[in-house]
Specification:
The complex is a heterodimer. Chain A is of the alpha/beta class. Chain A has helices at about 40-50, 85-90, 110-125, 140-145, 160-180, 240-245, 260-275, 295-310, 325-335, 350-365, 380-385, and strands at about 10-15, 55-60, 100-105, 130-135, 190, 195-200, 210, 215, 230-235, 250-255, 285-290, 320-325, 340-345. Chain B is α/β, with parallel strands linked by helices. In chain B, strand 7 and strand 8 form a beta hairpin. The chains are: A alpha/beta, B alpha/beta. Chain A: Keywords: Flavoprotein, FMN, Monooxygenase, Oxidoreductase.
Chain lengths: ~400, ~475
Amino acid sequence: MSSTPLSPLHLAVALDGTGWHPASWREPVARPQELFTAGYWADLVAEAERGLLDFVTLEDGLGPQSSHLLDPDDRTDQVRGRLDAVLVASRVAPLTRHIGLVPTAVTTHTEPFHISKAIATLDYVSTGRAGLRVQITARPSDADHFGRRTIPRIDDYHGPVVTELFDEAADYVEVVRRLWDSWEDDAEIRDVATGRFIDRDKLHYIDFEGRHFSVKGPSITPRPPQGQPVVAALAHATVPYRLVARAADVGFVTPHDTDQARAIVAEIRAEQQAAGRAAEPLHVFGDLVVLLDDDPAEAAARRDRLDTLAGEAYTSDARIFTGTPAQLADLLQELAQAGLTGFRLRPAVAGHDLPAITRGLVPELQRRGVFRHAYEADTLRGLLGLSRPANRYAAA
Amino acid sequence: MSKPLKQIHLAAHFPGVNNTTVWSDPKAGSHIEFSSFAHFARTAERAKFDFLFLAEGLRLREQGGAIYDLDVVGRPDTFTVLAALAAVTDRLGLTGTINSTFNEPYEVARQFASLDHLSGGRAAWNVVTSWDAFTGENFRRGGFLPQDERYSRAQEFLATATELFDSWQGDEIVADPATGTFLGDAKAGAFVHEGHHFDIHGRFNVPRSPQGRPVIFQAGDSDEGREFAASSADAIFSRYAQLEAGQAFYTDVKSRLAKYGRRSDQLLILPAASFVLGDTDAEAQEIAKDVRRRQVSGATALKHLEFVWNRDLSSYDPEGPLPDVDPVVGEQHISRGRAQVRMYRDPLAVAREWRELAQANNWSIRDLVIETGNRQNFVGTPETVARTIDEYVQADASDGFILVPHITPTGLDEFADKVVPLLQEKGVFRTEYEGTTLRDHLGLALPDSRPRSSGGIPVDETAGERAAS
């Protein structure tokens, strides 16, 4: 037993359709007919908030889901179609009070100006609980939906094409962040005497010029309540680790054991140091797919049943955990020893495994003294222990 | 036989980033905090309004090379705030102005289809176009679009988005756990569009939304704009809230519908209109005059005069006479990011006319800007205002109004409390929502999901170019 005080864990859930297992929609708890209604998403996020989780992420994409890495499929036996993640987050924001809302935005074909003001607005409607998870797409079929550029076909996610897309994502995050700072906090003065609504010296052109786009600014939306909403990215290799280290507040990584976790964390911390950000807090969360039941045999049987329905064993970039909440708590604490500061759990079946997290895992972690008993802050940055940053454009 | 009474449509325009909005009023609240939007939307829904309306501008306005600081500056993202408002209202339509120049159809169609799902069928899209390189500096493409192509892009943008909306018929989600069939059609969402502005194909990833497509608004006033509306829109956000001008516009636009195979009730004319209420008509007139003076400070008056003069007039006294110097005529304009300045097609003539007006009436610069600026459309007691609105609608000056209060966010409260009940008593405005969707409120049918069969939307992309030529 370690005698050092246990540091609290941070917990997020990744919401995607009826859950991460492709057969999840066939479970009696799944509500697949309601996937495109606000009520479905409101219920899931309310459940996550009941469990005092730090935040939820919402998956998204600029094309239909597919069982292939790069191309669409014609499958009719899995969930296809989804709502815009930023709008889902915004729709549930007024119905929740504490939980962070982190929608996915694809950086490859979209406008950083639009996304910056959308996330700033999400921060306003949630009074300081917004985040942004950035993602690239190398799918030629997604490019065809926009018709603005051609993405060369790739064999895997390790070549120069992908490096280029991540470089673009880094520029994108830079533009988004500069736009958030393009209004100083006290720019709105409403000075009746002089008739000036704003002090325009406190609005700033961002004058970003990069290889992929140039953006002038300032934003049309004032600086959001958190100053800088939380930026997150999922990373599986050196190039995206670098993006996390340079530009994000939270990285999601997929180690399958503690050795891998230790190595990934070391690589990200080294990149962070190289980027001159060593002093800044940067969370590294482990991603895990979870199937949770009170009896481990029950969880294993459920996984078998889902795999049978799907016609094949479910595989994932992340480790798939099958077992009890107490066993998962053991694993999370073990991985935390390797330097992970939190976890993003992907419920295999949202209607089953999310409540198992909030009503099984969370009380277990609370008993062990490593998870909060009440929300201790009103903003997502606050929950993650991140201070409200100074504005890069404000005179010191 | 007398004509049956027309039912009036009413909407609420969130106060905008121009000098109509009096931010200096002690009652004026935040134009950014969500609580302001929630209050405004709940008031509109309490009054059984058809919808809330949000304008958009994608670059902060500048004048004389500096960000314009005399009006409200800044606004939230349209889609995001409308999605949040869907959580605090049940029936109110949610209309967003979204630019067809600095967006792509796939993304905008996803956002509107998502908003329509998340609001249970209450989304509407005011399609606007722009071409200016000034706004383009905030976007990947920059100012890529020649001015004369903006309507052809808008037309093709809307036609393409319509193809995306229609790529799902509405019955594809089977989700039968027993058979394991989630999608009834493996090709759901398949689309191909090859046109002048857009060459895209693939799969749209949002299933058909409750309204099929969002309700389409159009706001341009040019001949191309009117033709665009007649061919493709469900409603027009117009600027003619006066009786005669409204009737002329109404007749003109409705007469354009037949050639697109559309009936007169398939396009609603809804002008923007401001109002001031008082206990007596005389008191309301006094309040209205006071509001106009607060809308046009001395500094604002000089800036508005610069729209015409197109030169720095900061050294002039707003309480003094108009400048003797003539306007600068040229391509470069002192004011950027503002559609209004294009109204002055012949600045020299306008300047001449204004000098004569000012001399004849002994007006200062500020007096002139106040007097030539927009007066409130409806001024009087609640009875006067209700009667006038009803008369205008029954006389076919419009099908209703999009009301623009001058105070954020409480500027609609008094109208909701005092004018709406009078319209309801007259039997010309609903006392309860009869349906759940915005199409229900506006009396618009659900669109056929089979593209090209409804006759409403010309998918021939040359239609816009024909109209423009």
